[in-house]
Design a protein that fits this description.
Elements lengths: L7 H8 L8 H5 L17 H16 L3 H13 L4 H10 L2 H7 L6 H9 L3 E3 L2 E2 L12 E4 L7 H7 L10 E4 L4 E4 L14 H8 L2
Antiparallel strand pairs: 1-2, 1-3, 3-5, 4-5
């Protein structure tokens, strides 16, 4: 299955949440899309609720099914609570950290910055969005990309104190990934235990 490139508002309305960022349409139409979207809600099965939560996590972080399954299996092998480790692994992806740094308005835009070789890790160009960062690594903007309008516009007014696990350096347009965030530090509204239950069936 290819990465979803369709209307993001449609997906956000499906979940009833602005999972891709602020959405003007969602604020007016906070119900599922389609002819019967605003009609009587049908009861969802336990499996359906669990599947929905997995899909929400995949769309939020822009991860495909095989990647998501691999991350889950990695989380299972790790010490700690599987669901929390899964979210931490998703947060540690390079594209997500570039998004958290304020270099891009969305994760898909951050993924594009990485793919187009505008991002460096410890001084070396990394063009793999799924690259897993480790505490202590420095993520920055390539010198010739620092004047890109898409980056300067997004950085304007961005609150870099939002995420304690990222230490921002304005002078070099870089940040240090201090530590893997605790689940309580991660703002995403994802019920990861439902995903664990789904994969445990």
């Amino acid at each position: 299955m290819a990465r979803y490139t369709g209307p993001k508002t449609k997906i956000a309305r499906k979940f009833g949440e602005a999972i891709f960022g602020p959405d003007k349409v969602l604020s007016k139409k906070n119900y599922p899309p389609g002819q019967h979207g605003n009609g009587r809600k049908k009861k969802t099965s336990e499996y359906g609720i669990q599947l929905r939560e997995k899909q929400k996590a995949k769309y939020t972080y822009g991860v495909l099914e095989r990647q998501f399954r691999n991350l889950f299996e990695k989380a299972q092998r790790s010490k700690g609570i599987t669901g929390e480790v899964l979210i931490q692994l998703l947060e540690s992806r390079l594209d997500n950290v570039v998004f958290r740094m304020g270099l891009a308005r969305t994760r898909s835009a951050a993924r594009q910055l990485v793919s187009h070789k505008h991002i460096v890790v410890d001084g070396k160009v990394v063009n793999i969005p799924s690259y897993s960062l480790k505490p202590g690594q420095i993520i920055g903007v390539r010198e010739k990309a620092k004047s890109l309008e898409v980056i300067t516009d997004t950085l304007a007014g961005f609150n870099h104190s939002k995420y304690a696990w990222i230490e921002w350096d304005q002078s070099s347009l870089s940040a240090k990934y201090l530590y893997v965030p605790e689940r309580t530090d991660i703002p995403e509204n994802i019920k990861e235990q439902l995903i664990v239950e789904l994969y445990s069936k």
